[in-house]
UniProtKB/TrEMBL annotation:
<dbReference type="GO" id="GO:0005524">
    <property type="term" value="F:ATP binding"/>
</dbReference>
<keyword id="KW-0067">ATP-binding</keyword>
<keyword id="KW-1133">Transmembrane helix</keyword>
<dbReference type="InterPro" id="IPR027417">
    <property type="entry name" value="P-loop_NTPase"/>
</dbReference>
<keyword id="KW-0547">Nucleotide-binding</keyword>
<keyword id="KW-0472">Membrane</keyword>
<feature type="transmembrane region" description="Helical">
    <location>
        <begin position="154"/>
        <end position="172"/>
    </location>
</feature>
<dbReference type="InterPro" id="IPR045076">
    <property type="entry name" value="MutS"/>
</dbReference>
<dbReference type="InterPro" id="IPR000432">
    <property type="entry name" value="DNA_mismatch_repair_MutS_C"/>
</dbReference>
<feature type="transmembrane region" description="Helical">
    <location>
        <begin position="179"/>
        <end position="195"/>
    </location>
</feature>
<dbReference type="GO" id="GO:0030983">
    <property type="term" value="F:mismatched DNA binding"/>
</dbReference>
<dbReference type="GO" id="GO:0005829">
    <property type="term" value="C:cytosol"/>
</dbReference>
<keyword id="KW-0238">DNA-binding</keyword>
<dbReference type="Pfam" id="PF00488">
    <property type="entry name" value="MutS_V"/>
</dbReference>
<feature type="domain" description="DNA mismatch repair proteins mutS family">
    <location>
        <begin position="355"/>
        <end position="540"/>
    </location>
</feature>
<keyword id="KW-0812">Transmembrane</keyword>
<protein>
    <submittedName>
        <fullName>DNA mismatch repair protein MutS</fullName>
    </submittedName>
</protein>
Length: 547
C-alpha cells in the first residue's frame, strides 16, 4: 500500500510540474504577443527556402538590390513574430515575392482576426509551432528542394554483407566456425558504417524534423478553421505516412543521443554496424522521399502559412497598421499618415499620386530618402502581407525597382557612376515590359558633373513615367524641378535655420524648394568668414547667369 501511495504521489508531483510548466509557457506566449522577438537572426538559413524555390509564376521577385535599398533585413527583423523556423522561412519568402493576385485573402484575414481575438486558440497554435523552433527545422525544405544522395553502383555489396551477417547468426548454433565469418563481416561493416556517417549527418536534422512537421500539421487539421487553408492536405499526410516507419529510426537516433545512457547507445551502435542498418535505411528513406517532394512541400507550406498569419496578427497588435486597398485599375497611390516603421517617432505624412509621379527636393537630412524608403516599404508589405504602416493606404499592384544605395564595385573595377548607370538602365528596360512599375531613386546621376547630370536625369525621368509607371525621385538640382514640373508633382522637405542651429520638421510640403540654406549651415558651424563671403558671392553670380 505504501508503494502504491508513493507512486501516486510521484505521478501527482510530475503532473503538477507539467501543468505549471505549460501554464508558465502559455503566460509567456500571451505576454509576447504584439512584441518584437528577442532572438538572433541567421539570414543564411532563413532565406534558404526562398533561394531554392521556383518563382516563375509570380509578378515579381524583389531583387537583392531593392532589398538592400529598403534595409530589408532590418525590416524583416521588425516584421517577424513567427514561432517556428518553418514559419520564419515561409514569411521571408512571402515578403520577397509579389503575386499577380491576392489569393485566399479572405480566409487569411479571417484567421488573423481569430488569432487576435481568441488568445486561448492562439496560444495552443503557438505551442504546437514551437516544436519546430529548433535550428534543425531550417533544413526540412532541403528534403523537397535539393537533390538527394544517390546510391553508389557498389551499394549492393552492403545488402550482401547485411544478409551475410543475418545468415551467420542463424547458422552459428549449428556451425561454430560461422563466428569467424561473423567477425570478418563485422570488421568490413565498420568501414562502410563509418563511411556512411557523413551521409547520415546530412539528414540527421531534416528527417526527424519532417516527422515533427507532419505531426504538427496533422494536429492543425483537427481544427476546422485551420483546415480551410488546405482542405486536401490530409491526403498528402497519408502519403507521407507510407514512409513513417523507416523515418522512425532517425527520430530514435536523435533521441538516444540526447536522452539515453552511453551504454545503451553503444550496444545499439554495434547492432547497426553488424547489419549495416544506417546506410540501408537512409538510402531507402531517401528513395521514397524523392517521390514525395510535392506532398512534403504542401505540408511545409501549410504550417508555414499558419505561422506567418499568426506573425502578421502579432505585428498588427504591436504596430499602428492598416489593411491597404489594392487599386487594380488606376494605379493610384494614396497614403494617409504614412510612416517608416523602423524610425522611432517617425513623422507621418500624406500624399496622393494620380497621373503624375513625384519629384522631391530638399537639403540633406531633411527626410527625402527616408520618405522614399517609407513608400517602398509600405508598398512591399501592402502587396505581400496585406499590411501598411499608415492610417489608410491605397496602392497599385506593381513591381518595385530602386536606385537608392549605390556604391563602387571595386572588385569588378566599376565606378560609382557606372554602377548607377547599370542600375537605372535596368529600370528603363523594365519600364517598357507592360507591367506597372514603381521606381524609387535618390539623387539621380549624382556621380557625374552638373550639366550632364541634369540633362541625363531629365531624359531618364521622363522615360520612366511611360506606360503608367510611377516614380519617386529626390534631387538637389533646382533646374531639374523646372524641367520636369509638367510631368511630375513637386514636393519638398525643408529645415528651419536659426542663429545657432538647424532644425528639421520632416514634413512633406507641396511645391519645389525655394530657400537654400547650405551656405548658412556652413556659417553656423564656424566656417571662416572669407569662405562664407566667397561662397555667397559665387552663388549670387551663378543665379544671375542662370536667369
Amino acid at each position: 500500500m505504501r508503494i502504491i501511495t508513493y507512486f501516486k504521489y510521484l505521478n501527482s508531483f510530475f503532473t503538477s510540474l507539467t501543468f505549471k510548466g505549460k501554464k508558465n509557457k502559455s503566460q509567456k506566449l500571451l505576454n509576447s504577443f504584439g512584441k518584437l522577438k528577442d532572438t538572433s537572426f541567421n539570414f543564411e538559413l532563413i532565406e534558404k527556402y526562398f533561394k531554392n524555390k521556383e518563382h516563375t509564376k509570380t509578378l515579381q521577385v524583389i531583387s537583392d538590390k531593392t532589398c538592400d535599398d529598403l534595409d530589408f533585413e532590418e525590416l524583416f527583423m521588425f516584421l517577424d513574430r513567427t514561432n517556428s523556423k518553418i514559419g520564419q522561412q515561409h514569411l521571408y519568402n512571402k515578403l520577397r515575392v509579389i503575386s499577380h493576385e491576392d489569393g485566399n485573402l479572405d480566409v487569411d484575414e479571417e484567421l488573423i482576426a481569430q488569432f487576435t481575438n481568441d488568445s486561448d486558440f492562439r496560444v495552443e497554435v503557438q505551442i504546437e509551432l514551437e516544436k519546430l523552433n529548433g535550428r534543425e527545422a531550417y533544413f526540412v525544405s532541403g528534403l523537397f528542394q535539393e537533390e538527394h544522395l544517390e546510391q553508389a553502383k557498389w551499394f549492393f555489396v552492403m545488402r550482401l554483407l547485411s544478409f551475410t551477417s543475418i545468415l551467420s547468426l542463424i547458422l552459428l548454433p549449428f556451425n561454430p566456425h560461422m563466428f569467424l565469418v561473423l567477425i570478418g563481416v563485422f570488421i568490413i561493416n565498420i568501414c562502410f558504417h563509418l563511411w556512411n556517417k557523413k551521409n547520415l549527418s546530412t539528414y540527421s536534422d531534416s528527417i526527424p524534423q519532417l516527422m515533427v512537421l507532419k505531426q504538427v500539421a496533422n494536429n492543425f487539421l483537427q481544427d476546422e478553421q485551420l483546415k480551410k487553408l488546405s482542405p486536401l492536405l490530409s491526403e498528402s499526410i497519408k502519403i507521407l505516412d507510407q514512409v513513417r516507419n523507416r523515418m522512425l529510426f532517425f527520430k530514435l537516433e536523435s533521441k538516444i543521443e540526447g536522452d539515453f545512457q552511453v551504454i545503451f547507445w553503444s550496444f545499439l551502435e554495434l547492432f547497426k554496424i553488424l547489419f549495416l542498418l544506417e546506410p540501408l535505411l537512409l538510402f531507402g528513406v531517401l528513395k521514397r522521399l524523392d517521390t514525395r517532394r510535392k506532398e512534403i512541400e504542401e505540408v511545409f507550406t501549410f504550417v508555414g502559412r499558419i505561422d506567418a498569419l499568426l506573425s502578421i496578427a502579432s505585428l498588427r497588435k504591436g504596430a499602428d497598421c492598416c489593411i491597404p486597398k489594392i487599386d487594380e485599375e488606376n494605379g493610384q497611390i494614396k497614403a494617409n499618415k504614412i510612416y517608416h516603421p523602423l524610425l522611432i517617432d517617425c513623422v507621418r505624412n500624406n500624399i496622393t499620386v494620380n497621373d503624375k509621379s513625384i519629384l522631391l527636393s530638399g537639403s540633406n537630412m531633411s527626410g527625402k530618402t527616408s520618405f522614399i524608403r517609407a513608400i517602398g516599404i509600405n508598398v512591399v508589405t501592402g502587396l505581400t502581407i496585406n499590411t501598411c504602416f499608415a492610417k489608410s493606404m491605397v496602392i497599385p499592384r506593381t513591381c518595385i525597382h530602386s536606385a537608392i544605395r549605390i556604391s563602387d564595385d571595386l572588385m569588378n573595377d566599376r565606378s560609382y557612376y557606372f554602377e548607377e548607370v547599370l542600375t537605372i538602365k535596368d529600370m528603363i528596360d523594365n519600364a517598357d515590359k507592360g507591367t506597372v512599375n514603381l521606381f524609387l531613386l535618390d539623387e539621380i546621376f549624382k556621380g557625374t558633373n552638373t550639366v550632364e547630370r541634369i540633362s541625363a536625369g531629365k531624359a531618364v525621368l521622363s522615360a520612366l513615367t511611360r506606360n503608367n509607371n510611377r516614380v519617386f525621385v529626390s534631387t538637389h538640382d533646382i533646374e531639374l524641378t523646372d524641367l520636369l514640373e509638367d510631368e511630375y508633382e513637386l514636393y519638398h522637405f525643408s529645415e528651419i535655420v536659426s542663429d545657432k542651429s538647424v532644425d528639421f520638421d520632416y514634413k512633406l510640403k507641396e511645391g519645389k524648394l525655394k530657400n537654400r540654406n547650405a551656405i548658412r549651415i556652413l556659417e553656423i558651424n564656424g566656417y571662416p568668414d572669407e569662405i562664407i563671403e566667397e561662397a555667397i558671392a559665387l552663388a549670387t553670380e551663378l543665379d544671375r547667369n542662370r536667369l
